[in-house]
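Cross-check.
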Amino acid sequence: MTAQPEPTDNVVRLHVGGKEGKLTTPVGSHIPVRVYERGGDFLMLVLMLDAGDELSRDVVEPLLLEYVSPRGLVRFHGQGVIQERDLVRFDVSAAPEVTQRREFVRVPSIQQVEVAKAHGGDPIGAHAIDISGGGMLVSGADALPLGAHVRFSLNLGAGSAPIEGHAQVVRAGDEGRRALVFDEISRSDRQRLIHFVFERQREALAKVGRVIDHRSSG
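Predicted model, tokenized:
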């Protein structure tokens, strides 16, 4: 008897290595996951840490899933069904929210940054003026020539490890400003940076909304 092919809906379509993401539980716990697509209304998640305490029930809801796609930061709301200890089926309850494109979205945010020539040289203390997932505009780095390859360490604030990597100076402006494009940055650091940019963007939009509401009620 000839075996029948498995229906397409039951075939797992995996990203290569999965996509790194974050699962937020109802009590606010953040669990790192890898996201694998399977169907239009659910995804498969592999837990990256032992989450026995956070996901001890068969069904957990509501959950928030976030990961970075080529379109930007994608957010899904839904519920999780534990298949195995480290495998969760995430059932999507609403259309995804795409909040930004990392290549283009920049936010003004003054952050301390150290930059130095990639092949030697003392670090220069400077400030990032605006930041995106693909680069930053730096003030106080006039010692860096156009085209220079540099290493950097970007401080995102207390309690957060710095973002480190390599970049190239692609534009030199007045007052010592240099535009840097990231050449080398770890996947986890880029994801943290994109989350930072998203939070700053959300805060700015919320501030604008409060101003509009105040003027409307005045």
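Residues 187-217 form the longest helix (31 residues). DSSP finds one helix and 13 strands in the chain. Passed to J.P. for a second look.
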